[in-house]
Specification:
homodimer, alpha/beta, Aspartate Aminotransferase, domain 1, Aspartate Aminotransferase, domain 2, 12 helices, 13 strands, L-serine-pyruvate transaminase activity (chains A, B), Alanine-glyoxylate transaminase / serine-glyoxylate transaminase / serine-pyruvate transaminase (chains A, B), Aminotrans_V_dom (chains A, B)
Chain lengths: ~375, ~375
């Protein structure tokens, strides 16, 4: 078997991520690798922390990128904050809420599940009830933007509710960061993780995370050792910390961090508010076209994420056949349904660099032709 | 604070890794991102498995790349194979043996440490004694090529010893893969992990791993759930598996996997034996020059890794000042000592693409000038 270089085609990525990557980010990615303890690299990491603080709208000192995909970012928050026996209220309204529950259990915690239908936001009143029933719960965990359904939940209200009851929050912002308002400090969120490959339009493989001083306090006062060596934030901090000499923990993914830095420079130059508005504008344009094609949204209007548009398949349409045709004839990727929505819905992403007029036009025209 | 694009200089990387990256690998890295469930990407992953099997010299079906650096590869092997209460004999002759011990403890296992001096290989007779004292030990864990000292251990003999006693082996091959002989099947090794950023000369951030059928059997018959969701190989297998539909686990680091694929194509084209010989030749050339400069090796000749040359600092030389001068004046990175060798030794890497005559020449001339 002779294997030669892999040369991928140019796809337009309008699924749930990875999203279309900024050309500047791909350029940054292939710049010469330097050492992970090189003073110039450490300077770059300091800038990266500042840029991430801007993206998260936080002053949290401990704002870094985990050297692995968003799922590892999720696990990082859980393994560092949950100790065996801890009670965690987990809101489940899609795939990623269930993954949070799995994480709690694997940390030896007790998960109290607040269930909502797929496609609906987390119910604040149900969370209130759960807190009333479990006043000893330590953490409230929820997904801000459910990538499996396209529903956004009210992170501001949930954050305030947790603070009223002296609970920490763990928040999944994988799909929200950079696409819709996310104000970590103003909303009083404690441990928030995201992914590089959604609205930041960077390559997949990194997970930005930020921890409030209250979360850091809990990490520092743990009674048990974090079960993961790789994700133990007290060890990682020695490498990312701004003061003095950096201590070696693991070899940082140097080139991927160049790419993340570049994507955040682009976000900062555009301005967060402008990026949010652009996502909204493109969503409205896409919505208009999809509705003209007779497609209807899974999520009610007030809870729709502009960057992830889940629409039901029209009657009698072959899910896989349509997606294959879009891919083969138009080099266009849209997402399949996941979990409860598998075979029933498509997920059309308008994330980061992908939230452009030309992408909307391509998607609408291609879908129109294929569905005829 | 205005932050603009980060443009690194071109360094010659002769530390303990990341190593000099092949230009073709950087090119592959920046090819257009496609979806992680795209049929073309899945085809690339199948090729990648074949290429990894060649590099590891194994027929193991379950041979993949963990979506995170080598330390996560280490943790993957331990969390999947060690259950609470399991006894693991861990050989410690440097930083990474100690990290293995940490992993055993964090998995709830009992670590029996076999201690050897830094810079010496693992003592086979000490391991025999430990096995005799602990016949109920389930796993023997050791580092094939200690990156902190440059010593290679006899993985073949240790592998056979473990099999005689019906034990599994977990082997750290982070620095050995592609640089010195590593014959996973012939040596009967069970769970072997490596890193992308050493002798493969790919960017840092991925960890190739391979599991023997015996290791898979142990994973499948676990009584407890793997403590890590992200690293749970029974879940990951659904994505990497060759048969039928791929199930989503996490978003693969698409571009980094392009790069790994390219680096392995280059290794296959060169041929493993040729790559091993090139590392040896360049090591002999470097050694000759270093000895002329009056530098002496930390490791005895018969246990020296050609790709990682640890030499003692000459009397009265300022460690950091020399390394800074090399970096600033020659754009040359050599490695500092780690752990017990901090401030006492340098580590000069000749890994993968870095094992070239021009690198040896630059290093020797620059060192000669700076040390004058």
């Amino acid at each position: 078997m002779t294997i030669s270089s892999f040369v991928p085609p140019h796809r337009t990525l309008m699924g749930p991520g990875p999203s279309d990557i900024y050309p500047q980010v791909l350029q940054a990615l292939s710049r010469p690798t330097i050492g992970h303890l090189d003073p110039l690299f450490i300077g770059m990491m300091d800038e990266l922390k500042e840029l991430l603080k801007y993206a998260f709208q936080t002053q949290n000192d401990f704002t870094i990128a985990v050297s692995a995909p968003g799922s590892a970012g999720m696990e990082t928050c859980f393994v560092n904050l949950v100790e065996p026996g801890d009670k965690v209220i987990v809101c489940r309204n899609g795939v990623f809420g269930e993954r949070m529950r799995e994480n709690v259990v694997r940390c030896g915690g007790e998960a109290i599940v607040v269930e909502d239908d797929w496609g609906t936001p987390v119910s604040v009143s149900k969370v209130e009830q759960a807190i009333a029933q479990h006043p000893d719960a330590k953490i409230l965990a929820f997904v801000h933007a459910e990538t499996s359904t396209g529903a956004v939940s009210d992170a501001k209200t949930l954050g305030a509710l947790a603070k009223q009851h002296d609970m920490l929050t763990i928040v999944d912002a994988v799909t929200s960061l950079g696409g819709v308002p996310l104000l970590v400090d103003e909303w009083q969120l404690d441990a928030v993780y995201s992914g590089s490959q959604k609205c930041l339009s960077c390559v997949p493989g990194l997970s930005p995370v930020t921890y409030s001083p209250a979360a850091i306090e809990v990490i520092k006062s743990r009674k048990t050792t974090v079960q993961s060596w790789f994700l133990d934030q007290s060890l990682v901090l020695g490498y990312w910390s701004g003061d003095g000499k950096r201590s070696y923990h693991h070899t940082a993914p140097v080139n991927s961090l160049y790419a993340l830095h570049e994507s955040l420079v682009l976000l900062k130059n555009e301005g967060l508010e402008n990026a949010w508005q652009r996502h909204k504008d493109m969503h409205l344009l896409l919505r208009e076209g999809l509705e003209k094609l007779g497609l209807s949204f899974v999520v009610e209007e007030q809870s729709r994420l502009p960057q992830l548009n889940a629409v039901y398949l029209p009657e009698g349409v072959d899910d896989a056949a349509v997606r294959t045709q879009l891919l083969e004839e138009y080099n266009l990727e849209i997402g399949a349904g996941l979990g409860a929505l598998a075979g029933k819905a498509w997920r059309i992403g308008l994330m980061g660099y992908g939230a452009r007029r030309e992408n909307v036009a391509l998607c609408l025209k291609a879908l129109e032709t294929v569905l005829k």
